[in-house]
Structure formats: structure tokens, C-alpha cells
Specification:
Blueprint lengths: L1 H36 L7 H6 L9 H10 L9 H4 L4 H17 L7 H9 L5 H19 L9 E2 L9 H24 L6 H8 L4 E2 L2 E2 L12 E2 L8 E2 H20 L6 H10 L14 H8 L5
Parallel strand pairs: 1-2
Antiparallel strand pairs: 2-3, 4-5
Helix pairs in contact: 1-3, 1-5, 1-6, 5-6, 5-7, 7-8, 8-9, 8-10, 9-10, 10-11
Amino acid sequence: MKQKKTILLVSLLAINTICLAQINEGLVDLGKTYRQYMFRNNAPAGVSAGLDKYSGTVLGFVADFIRETTRENNSLLTEKFLSRPGDSSLKYVYIIREVNYNVRKEEPEDNKSLVEKLLNKDVPVNELVDCYYDILFTGYGNKNQPFDLSGVNFDLKEYHLNNDTEQGIFFLRAMRLCGTVIWGYMNVVKPPNYKEAMKYIEKYPRFNSAPYYQYLDLNFPDFKMKIESEKKAQSYKEYYIDKYYETLIYHLQCLQQDDSNKEKINDLILGSILKEEMYYKYSKQEKALKKLFTPYKR
């Protein structure tokens, strides 16, 4: 009997080792696939079909997710992918992104060793959620042209997000994509092309059935994480709320080009965090915000 138990234990350990090895190899494979086709180039049909081998495994969902990031006109904004995955899938997506970063290096670490190390690393869940929606919105922006989210309503209560922090991450990541779409029109061309920028602002999505700027639930607890590769861990809200304020100010500047927009200007200021002084500390333009918008406080 003792011998049978020993054989069974050894067999279970062997099976577990094989499963972990398969997960390791799969994550390396998915990371390389993501790296190669994450930008504008569309993955060949054979590459997409090759990911079918993960169907029915623990990597099934993340393989479907990565497949969508490699496709033009993808389905990333369907409920299947907008909904928060389980923690294991979030961790796998995080590791896939790290493999993608690794293979870009001049002297990369061995990918299998990297994956093994990351599988055993305790990563804060906020970082995992941020990573997932970073890849989702980047994948949508890279592969769906021209940009147009005017018919999209993000109902955050439908996506199984666990708390206000995760909803805030979703919102700020979505708005980061929106902000990058107009940044060039407001900063590269001289003078700024307000007309073209406004065309894209009018194509921004709605959140919870309201205009994007009416989302106010950003008073979640702040946390630190590594956001820019060349910098240390930094305040999440200081980075992303600053970027969001930038987008709001661009929107305001576009409206100010036409005297007939006074009502729209008031709606933007009074309906957004432009009037919320408690968030000004997160913006590089804190002094300007206080000077311009504090009088609008109710």
C-alpha cells in the first residue's frame, strides 16, 4: 500500500511538472506572438489558427485575447474581453507582456527562466488589472482604424470589476487611448489644429450612459507601480489623472475656439473634474487649474 501511495505521489508530481512546463512554453509562445503582431501588421491566418491548440486549456482565454490583439478590426470591445478575467488569467497576460518586453532587449533574459520567476512572483492585483486594460485598449487602438468610439457605451458595472479602484483603472486606461488620438493635433502642429482634434473628441465613448467627462469616481485609494520603464514606481493617480486633465483641457481649448460654445464649455467644466480641486494635486498644471476653475466650485 505504501509503495502504491509513493507511486501515485510521484505520478502526480510528474503530471504537475508537465503542466507547468506546458504553461511556461505557452506563455513564451504567446509573448512572442504578441510582440510580433501587436502593432499595425496583421497576423497571418496560420499564426491565428496556431493558437487554437490552447483551446480548452488554462491558457485558452488568454490565447483568444492575444489573438484579438493581432487582428485588424478586432473584437476587443466585446463583453467577453471587456469583462475582468480571473486573477490567474490576469497574471498570465502580465507575464505575456513581460516576455514581449524581454525579447525587445539587446541582451534578453532566457524567456523560460523569466516566466518561471514571474509565475512565482506576487504581483499586486491593481498592476495586473492595469496591465490587462493597457493591452486591451492599446490593441484596439492599434488595430481599429480610423478611431471612432462614438457608438460605444462602457457600462462599468457590467464588467465584473471588483471595486472603485478597478473601475477607475478601466476608465483612465480607456481615456489614455482617447487622449493619445488628439495629442498630435494639439502639440505637434503649430498652431494647434483644434478643428481636427474636436472631430476626434466627438468620437469619444460614453461611460455609464453619460459623456466621458461626467465620470467622477476617481477618489479611489492611490497606489504606486512602475509605469515608465526608465523611472521608479510612481503614483498611479499622479500619472494617469494628470494625463486625463490634459485631455479635458484640450477639449476645453477646442470649445473655446467658437463663441457659440458657451453652454458646452459650462457643461464641460461643471460636469467634470475640472472643478474638483481635490484632484488638482495630481496634475502638472495644478496652479493653472486652481486659477481657472476654482471659481466654478459649487
